[in-house]
Amino acid sequence: MRPLALVAALCMAASPFALAQNTAAGASRGSGALPSLGDNSELSAAAERRIGDRIAVSLYRDPDYVDDPVLVDYLQSIWQPLMAAARARGELSAELDERFAWDVFLIRDRSINAFALPGGYFGVHLGLISAVTSPDQMAAVLAHELGRATRGAALGPDEVFAAVSAVHRRIRGSYAVIAQIAGRGMLAFRDPFGIRPLNLGRSADGGVMLASESVALEGTGFMPERDVAPGEAVFVTLDGTVHTRQCAPQAQLSPCIFEYVYLARPDSVLDGISVYQARMNLGETLAKRVISTVPPDQIDVVIPIPESSRPSATELARLLGKPYREGFVKNRYVGRTFIMPGQAVRKKSVRQKLNAIASEFAGRNVLLVDDSIVRGTTSKEIVQMAREAGARKVYLASAAPPVRYPNVYGIDMPTKDELVAHGRSVEEIRQIIGADALIYQDVDAMKRAIGQLNPSLRGFDASCFDGVYVTGDITEGDIDRMNQQRVKTDEGEAEGSRLTLPNAFVA
After folding, report:
1. pLDDT, tens digit (0-9, with 9 covering 90-100), for 284-317
2. Which residues have CB under 8 Å from 117's CB, separation 6+?
3. From the CB of residue 158, how many other CB atoms can be counted at a distance below 10 Å?
4. Which end of the chain has the lower number of beta carbons within 10 A, N or C?
């Protein structure tokens, strides 16, 4: 295997930044969009370097390019030993060693991703830096298995699927991977439990695209065809031919229920379930809980906390027979607060993120509806904002049950001690948040409300709500060990400064 192809696999090019997203995500039949950069490439090393130089210049000028000496030093501490090992094993020719840039740069992006470009340039997303604390991670595992499978042989579908099977045997946890293999095609695969979503679509001209959500396909002119099955791998060759294979012998579909509660876009369809309809159903079941806690005649108006709670709030208001109003305006340029490091940062960001429309609160008993309550910091601040806007009483309803357990499957939810619901009763949480009443969704009702939209679905991963980890290999000791590895963050640190908890276990 040519060194560029090897390192491209090592970097696991899920989306080579803005320039190459189209070619990485979709392999168009007959388009020849993916250049041949692997074995049998017609490009000389010098020509490839020139292409890489042009791409790199545009990336260095991009606003998302990160110039952080500390993170660069950290990255180089991993990168340089890899380069030295490649030279020592004779895997790096003198010509490529001399002519290629072998330069690594950082991109401000929360996705767990890295990518290779022509000419020895490699990019790493900040999301990958935050998730990786050891060299034994999925990208390295996949690259290793690809290298072993192709030693002395051509890289074809059988070799690729053998590598994915080996990854499944070694990696435990949740993952949905889309990778470009230089000069060969596009590879995508999903964990054996299907915890994270992965969707396949086609365009009218025969192009193939894979994405985490169906809405990403529809927004680029592709029609969703089907969900990739748990443990399944899809390999699209450069001519657009699609090869598929089940690579996990005991796969079972247990998607993350938090995708439907909060993470996914409402216009997506995941594993046959409309996210929008799922949230509508949560509002219906939540209405029954509200009525048993707060008599409807004590509620003047239902107000959602933007954005994810709107479908639930709409249905809740309809069933209660109460007006639905937009009481908060959202600033779309502030990120998700529940993953922000430090309470002070989160509290400040809530005020920057939301602004109350005072006329919708003044003199009224308001029922606020949120999709979920994680740390409680955001909820407490929003309740206070409603009171400052003139609300007489503030009730808070959560479309999701109490988040009592850490999530170890790819969502950077805090340690259990940071979860407001961990070890506390609903009344204790209500007092912390400062609401006049607090109503939570029921765990079983949540599962029924969403599960009925796809009767063939046998269950969900709802571990952050019920403490049941579907992979069956997470112990209290594992969680304690991971929490100890988490880099502590001081109050007031800026967003993105925290290197977060790794979520994958490697056997």
Report:
1. 999 999 999 999 999 999 999 988 999 999 999 9
2. 16, 20, 52, 55, 56, 123
3. 14
4. C
